[in-house]
Known about the structure:
Oligomer: single chain
Strand order of the largest sheet: 1-2-3
Largest sheet: 3 strands, antiparallel
Amino acid sequence: xxxxxxxxxxxxxxxxxxxxxxxxxxxxxxxxxxxxxxxxxxxxxxxxxxxxxxxxxxxxxxxxxxxxxxxxxxxxxxxxxxxxxxxxxxxxxxxxxxxxxxxxxxxxxxxxxxxxxxxxxxxxxxxxxxxxxxxxxxxxxxxxxxxxxxxxxxxxxxxxxxxxxxxxxxxxxxxxxxxxxxxxxxxxxxxxxxxxxxxxxxxxxxxxxxxxxxxxxxxxxxxxxxxxxxxxxxx
Length: 235
């Protein structure tokens, strides 16, 4: 860590979470949201390409970790566990656990809009951090960083049945109360074509029970259903 010469805040961030980056510019890029780039032309690149890479790295690493951690778990359950561990809300939780929002480089508008604590932005930043760590130090470093986080999250997922499909569970709840099947309505779509963000409401009998955000409609609808179940006290 001593060889890293970033600003005080980013240096302390790395020190606190026990991360070492050989490439300071790569680390700074991982923290740079496109809104910051718009206001600071001297910052040459945002973190969207690193986000793309980090997403792929996490999919592989979490799948391999689950395969080894749960040798008796059937394939279907492994798939549901991986989905639960890499969806937007969980990655945002990881980001909050390490206080990533405090060091993200955001434009003034994003900061004023609460971007430092927004799930979609935190998820993107966490994926970018993982992508940068992979490029800088390889998969072994990513594995060492992620394993403690995965151990805590996987235990919580199993204990609270978060690996169950929330859309199916919410539909079962609706039908058991004599309601029609839930309808998922896209409230808003934002971001560039290669990094769309979808905001989706889940509606039953004209009432919004939950809202979800994600980089795909599938992720957003799943998160909406999970938030609906949370609000009902089912999860």
